[in-house]
Amino acid sequence: MPEQTLPAGFTFSQSSLQDYSDCPRRFQLRYIEQLKWPAVESEPALENERRQQEGQLFHRLVQQRLIGLPADKLTPLASTLDLRRWWENYLTHPIDDVSGYAQYVEVTLSAPVGTCRLLAKYDLVAVRDGRAVIFDWKTSHKRPRDEWMAARMQTRVYRALLVQAGTHLNGGKPFEPEQVEMVYWYADFPSEPARFPYNAAQHKRDWDGLTGIVNEIANHRVFPLTEDEKKCAYCPYRSYCNRGVAAGTGEELETESAEAQINFEQIAEIEF
After folding, report:
1. pTM value?
2. pLDDT at position 251, please?
3. Mind listing the domains of the chain with CATH numbers?
4. How far is Cα 41 from Cα 246, in angstroms, rounded to an integer?
5. Residue 242: what pLDDT?
């Protein structure tokens, strides 16, 4: 088999790093070989597609509200049961009062990491007096455990990258890790946000770890399959790996790992 390397100019995101962490083979198929998805991720396929589209629409509604559009003008756009519920929850359950903060909506940050670059798109970064709060909207139908979210690449990447590359959001001064917090707001659980403060030790651990993973991927020539075959039921590449053809069903989405496999945490990164 010929050697396979990253495409020229490849930029990492939390999604690609999570794919590699979950299954190096999936990373290879998706980002190096750039293969089409041969199988639906979960059944029923149309239901899964609808949920992802609604998640995208919800993110767009919140983005429009944050940049100043009146809520009464946006409300008619919440045209499905899920969207109406999420939108009503957003309007009636504010997370924090950030009215006195500089608000950077859907801002993108990038920095070199190892031999490549790392990119992240944030739903909202609110900044005041050197303090930064990262907000991320989640539309998954299950609320994951905070311990599970703390270990996800998104939590590690978003906080670390803000410290590394957010100087221009803070008047030209780097953010201190202790002044950074990440908040996940769950549209179906509006009174139960997950909060993740940060510190210098965590930042060193995260940045060193991300650098190591990026360099490992850049020098990899063999990408093994995950040993956790439960993940394969929701992977669109499973037929390439002889790990089954039939998709997992929506009724089987009972675990955090299964929920993540159908990409709900990546809705805000569709542009990647």
Report:
1. 0.88
2. 45
3. 11-267 (3.90.320.10)
4. 9
5. 84
